[in-house]
Amino acid sequence: MQTIQHPELQETLYYEKMPNGLDVYVLPKEGFQKTYATFSTRYGSIDNHFRVTGEEDHQVPDGVAHFLEHKMFEEPTGDIFATFATQGASANAFTSFDRTVYLFSATEQIEANIETLVNFVQNPYFTDENVEKEKGIIGQEIKMYQDNPDWRVYFGVIEAMYGVHPVHIDIAGTVESIGTITKETLYTCYNTFYHPSNMLLFVVGGVDAEKVMSLIRENQAKKNYGEQGEIHRLFADEPSEVYQQRKTSQLPVSLPKCLFGLKEKKVLELGEEQLRRDLVTKLMLDIMLGSSTPLYQKLYDDDLISDGFGFEFNTGKNYAFSIIGGDTRDPDQLIERIRTAVEEMKQTGFDQAHFERARKKKVGNYLRMLNSPESIANEFTNYKFRESDLFAVLPVYESITLDEVNARLRDHFDWEQLAISIVESPVQA
Amino acid sequence: MTSFEQGRVHQMRIHVLPTKRFKTFAISLYIGVPLEESSVTKVALTPFVMRRGTESYPETLQFREHLDDMYGAGFGFDVFKRGDYQIVQFRMDVINDAFVASEESLLQQSFAFLGEVLTKPALKDSAYRNRYIDAEKETLRKRLEAIVNDKIRYAAERCIEEMCKNEPYRLHPLGERKDIEGISSEGLLEHYEHWLQSASMDLYVVGDTSLDEVQKLVEQHFQLQRSEETTYHMTPSARVSRDVQTIVEKLDVGQGKLNMGLRTSITYKDDQYAAALMYNGILGGYPHSKLFVNVREKESLAYYASSRFDGHKGICTIQSGIEIENYEKAVDIIKKQLDSMQAGNISDLELSQTKAMISNHVRELGDSAFEMIGYDFNRQLSGKSRTAAELLEQVERVTIEDIKRAAQTFQLDTIYYLRDRKGE
């Protein structure tokens, strides 16, 4: 077991790689009642075309990773939620573009709950019947999102930016695509992506690190995992230009919803360089558009944005993009105004005072995040899967320079890369 | 969970929990008044205007830059209802100085800031008042109009509105759109002064500080002149003697939203409260509950099917999203679960699982500063003191017979269904 000290954060992290390849991290939090654990696989909605060294290619239907997540909760003995409930744990799971996470939080029977978490995820049970039954449930989940204008406008902009890369495919798939999923599809994906060497267990809370490690050591030693070849995720070439400049959908909304995105032309490999670009871009967007900036205030005063206005920078394997926007009475005017302001900023660059203030805010937000076991576990895994380290963020923030942010501003805001998504009310006949 | 130390300054109740467990100070100020049609919109608008600026930082930009300078101090507000009260909550969340190189204490700066927000808002300054009020009226109007965008929330609000149409509880905490236009600058200012005088105020702090330090900071930074302390008096849900009402509404939706509202005479201050929590937990609080198991897992009718209990009002609500044509089937299955609760058809396993889940939830509260604050605030609202440890013990003692008895008090009142426009 390795001990990783972070005295400046008053945190100590423990790490061990199990013989079968599973990464286990434990972060004891003194005085905390709760233990929160996540068991995650590097497998999400974008991993729909893959090959394991020495095996054949697989192209699977849209929505499999998410479907698999649902079905994992079923065991031969029944629903695993019931077992967690008996042990007083609140369990859940989610699927994103590039990972699937199973989790629980509990204040008692911690060891039993950790074992339950690891065992149920390592024990798939798919039958023709239980796969069919799930299609009705996920069908309703898909329909729920279809009625949600925030989701529609968000996915709309990704669909507009990307034509080939599977990041543009809805995480849950479609009613049609999930219709073609069989238990064989699920086993193929499970056997590829749920090998321990592709997974990470994170435990945070009022626990003893050595106890948790020895529990996992024993648990894993009882299971027979063969060596697994390397997983090759296959991505067809995504053109650098956007797929579609504008995408509009109709849903009843009180004001049009408008998000626009800028698709990065240059895709970086996962790792330190990507982490740095991420942090620099997020800082840059905050100096430009954060709620304490002159541009934000001007747009608010002119009734072009409201409190829900926001922005993000999202990056992963073979994709990177920003998304900006919110509810607005006039999408085109909003975009035009931001565009004009950005062009001016590109000329002048940001000033040192705004830069320092935004950096201070980021540092504060980062420290605040460390109060939450949920955030620590999820963010740590997220960073690890991108081959970087959550606890290395503070020194990166400290080393970012104003010049770097200004250069990023000029590089990122290339309007050739703009895609727009709008959700507006249908015109009533 | 250790308990809050209590004091009082300017007729404001002060609650402080000294702890070194967090990297921040959490500050929460609750300002509550009875929910009334005549004032609901003005009360809702007030914090929107207050967050625009203060005497020292009259421009919103300065106000927000100042927060960023305090290492991105979190500042926010919320307006919600608890029983028949409308509560404005201001929150601050600021880094403990031990982690950053700050020149002046961040706790001190936070109180200086919050004190100004409360007692010296730019709302008092005629040079800013009109501009901010006009803009925030527009923001409030947009917020109210946007409720329809999220169909899950919209259906939940509409169900309560129909169910409580003759009680203050029907009112949305953000008020009513029709009132906004008629609010004048002078009217809002006058209302603000009155609100500051008459509302119940509870100030909470969790972090590495003491009651003494907080009381001094409040005396120093809160320029309040309040003549008396105001307390909360909750009125439980009114019993309505009529048949179950069914409301169907049509909108452009692909999925039907089915909501139901039940009334109970049990509220937070009652001895039966733990049994009512257990009732809700077994019915629909968790993935092992009757609604999830029967509506989702057995029949594949829905992705979500759950229930929620508002212990201050004595209302339990059920919500689910279903295929439009499955309405009758879903209503039928849900009603069967309600009947089965009243008949006491509850297994020992359901009992023990639900106890474990509720206990876990209560114990987890101790890990979040704002959750601890929220829990303790229940005591102010209800007048009933029940520590987390006491609640745990009460839940542990609940029997199936107790839940069956509690179930008799839960009566279905309203079925609300949001569906598509087909057949119009």
What order do the helices and strands come in, and which of them pair?
The complex is a heterodimer of chains A (429) and B (424).
Chain A lengths: L1 E5 L4 E7 L5 E6 L6 E7 L7 E4 L5 E2 L4 H9 L1 E2 L2 E2 H7 L3 E6 L4 E7 L3 H12 L6 H19 L2 H13 L13 H5 L3 H11 L5 E7 L3 H13 L9 E3 L12 E5 L6 E7 L8 H18 L4 H8 L8 E7 L2 E9 L3 H18 L3 H18 L3 H13 L7 H7 L2 H11 L5 E7 L5
Parallel strand pairs in A: 3-11, 13-17
Antiparallel strand pairs in A: 1-2, 2-3, 4-10, 4-11, 5-6, 5-12, 7-8, 9-10, 14-16, 14-17, 15-16
Helix pairs in contact in A: 1-7, 3-8, 9-12, 9-15, 12-14
Chain B lengths: L4 E5 L2 E7 L5 E11 L5 H11 L9 H10 L4 E9 L2 E11 L10 H14 L6 H20 L5 H13 L13 H4 L4 H14 L1 E8 L3 H11 L23 E6 L5 E8 L9 H13 L4 H9 L3 E9 L4 E8 L4 H16 L5 H17 L4 H14 L5 H10 L2 H8 L3 E9 L5
Parallel strand pairs in B: 2-6, 7-11
Antiparallel strand pairs in B: 1-2, 3-5, 3-6, 4-5, 8-10, 8-11, 9-10
Task: Sum up the structure in keywords.
A: alpha+beta, 7-stranded mixed β-sheet, B: 424 residues, alpha+beta, 5-stranded mixed β-sheet, 11 strands, 43% helix, 21% strand, globular
Strand order of the largest sheet of chain A: 1-2-3-11-4-10-9
Helix content of chain A: 40-55%
Q: Which whole number gives the mean pLDDT of chain B? A: 94
Distance between the termini of chain A: 68 Å
By oligomeric state, this entry counts as heterodimer
Show unreliable segments of chain A: none
Category by helix and strand content of chain A: alpha+beta
